[in-house]
């Protein structure tokens, strides 16, 4: 499989502040690859270097086999970008926004018309294509930004928080569309601070925090490696905590609960019920949020 993006010791400084601290990652053609992390982790800054809009301060970066420092124009022609902020022209319609992009990429008239019609249908916006942007909902604008990113038929799509601020229905629609694009063989790179988005969409991901990469792997891999398959949640009363400690069972205190990462929930449940009597406890599958909490002691959205 061909490598589409390769970063080695990639660093970005703003004055004395290091926003991206020498990160390494490699993304393969056809993958859906995610950068998961809280606000300020350095995800957007990393994407902006990949999109050739912000030069790196140090390290190596190759996008589609080229160096953004010397081949920005060539890379941009092959790239589809969904930026964090919707930057459609608010005074134009959806159709006009896409038409402007097609002109920018020099796509000839008839081909542009055919492609725009197909893209508007793909994002389910054909009925609203003549509505001026400022009258559309957030989800509709996001779908148009996605359609616009596809005007140049890119092999590689880079999306910065594609569904932030959308309601669940609008989010699920975009997820379906992204899965469809990946099924066509396109490479998808996205940033998110929604662990559910990362779990559902990404074949592989890195978790970023404070400008660095903490871990890398498939969602199942990361959860299995860091947590185990299950999380047992018990009310954090002194009796429960002392029982866990006596058995040498590790736990994290979050809110009023003790969270026990485990592959053996039955054994832990039995020990607690036997020694603590009637207590509130429940078992659930572990998530990437639990991985982040384990690695940093914080929640993703704190
Ligand atoms: N132009 C800039 N000048 C100075 N500092 C910056 C600049 N751009 C970003 N930063 C800082 O770099 C850090 C990383 O920001 P970045 O936007 O990459 O984070 P992020 O993970 O994408 O978070 P968010 O979800 O909020 O976009 C932050 O501390 C931010 O304040």
UniProtKB/TrEMBL annotation:
Superkingdom of origin: Archaea
InterPro entries with a match to the protein in the record: AAA+_ATPase, ABC_transporter-like_ATP-bd, ABC_transporter-like_CS, ABC_transporter_ATP-binding, P-loop_NTPase
GO cellular component annotations of the record: plasma membrane
Gene Ontology MF: a single term: ATP hydrolysis activity
Keywords tagged on the record: ATP-binding, Cell membrane, Membrane, Nucleotide-binding, Translocase, Transport
ABC transporter domain ranges (all copies): 5-235
Signal peptide: none
Keyword Nuclease: no
Membership in a protein family: Belongs to the ABC transporter superfamily.
Name of this chain's protein: ABC transporter ATP-binding protein
Species, as recorded: Methanofollis formosanus
